[in-house]
Amino acid sequence: QKEVEQNSGPLSVPEGAIASLNCTYSDRGSQSFFWYRQYSGKSPELIMFIYSNGDKEDGRFTAQLNKASQYVSLLIRDSQPSDSATYLCAVKGSSASKIIFGSGTRLSIRP
Amino acid sequence: NAGVMQNPRHLVRRRGQEARLRCSPMKGHSHVYWYRQLPEEGLKFMVYLQKENIIDESGMPKERFSAEFPKEGPSILRIQQVVRGDSAAYFCASSPDRGPSPLHFGNGTRLTVT
């Protein structure tokens, strides 16, 4: 079982709609969760991080964490063509542990 | 520029040569991660270092690869006797501590082995 799993996509969403990206992780002791966006040929850039169960909102982005289900998601409201990218979920266990990335979900926003 | 600095941006090596990739973390950051990314694939963890200390090297191949982060100067990822399969993008990221802080990435080094 992979440590961090994401659906590779591509996920196609019409412009203006909500894009929903999902991620599951295997280490029940994981404490920190991150979403990164990566455009083709570029480096990952941080979108959001979440540490506690529940929702965290930042502009058009909402991260959701459910530790009991070992599940973290990212919602993108009012999707724009510029949101088309690969979205990487990352998970950190204990304070001294490495940060593991999922393989990413390719998101395509169609006009 | 206070961001994570990686150099070179592009590196071409012939099979059997050595590749040295350098990473200077963000100002105030003392923890460095190295990741490898093949085309159309995710980021694969390689090594996690603190100054003068390797915290986790579980993702490093057992042979030819080594990493260091000295007290002074950048972190170095060294690949000896490169093979074509080493061709990839290598990303460095830094964080200020061992805690839950997110990583900040450099622009990466694209290694091509001919």
Structural overview:
The model of chain A has no long low-confidence stretch (mean pLDDT 93). Chain A is mainly beta and 111 residues long. In chain A, strands 2, 4, 5, 9, 10 and 11 form a six-stranded mixed β-sheet that branches. A five-stranded antiparallel β-sheet of chain A has the order 1-3-8-7-6, with no helix packed on it. Helix content of chain B is 0%, strand content 49%. Chain B is built from no helices and eleven strands. In chain B, the strands form two sheets. In chain B, strands 2, 4, 5, 6, 9, 10 and 11 form a seven-stranded mixed β-sheet that branches. The radius of gyration of chain B is 13 Å and the shape is globular.
Terminal-residue CA separation of chain A? 37 Å
Q: Cα-atom Rg of chain B, whole angstroms?
A: 13 Å
Low-confidence stretches of chain A: none
Say how many strands of chain B there are: 11
- Secondary-structure class of chain B: mainly beta
Whole-number radius of gyration of chain A? 13 Å
Compile the SSE list and pairings.
The complex is a heterodimer of chains A (111) and B (114).
Chain A: E1 4-5, E2 11-14, E3 19-25, E4 32-38, E5 45-50, E6 54-58, E7 61-66, E8 71-76, E9 85-92, E10 99-101, E11 105-110
Parallel strand pairs in A: 2-11
Antiparallel strand pairs in A: 1-3, 3-8, 4-5, 4-9, 6-7, 7-8, 9-10, 9-11
Chain B: E1 5-7, E2 10-13, E3 19-24, E4 31-37, E5 43-50, E6 53-56, E7 65-68, E8 75-79, E9 88-95, E10 104-105, E11 109-113
Parallel strand pairs in B: 2-11
Antiparallel strand pairs in B: 1-3, 3-8, 4-5, 4-9, 5-6, 7-8, 9-10, 9-11
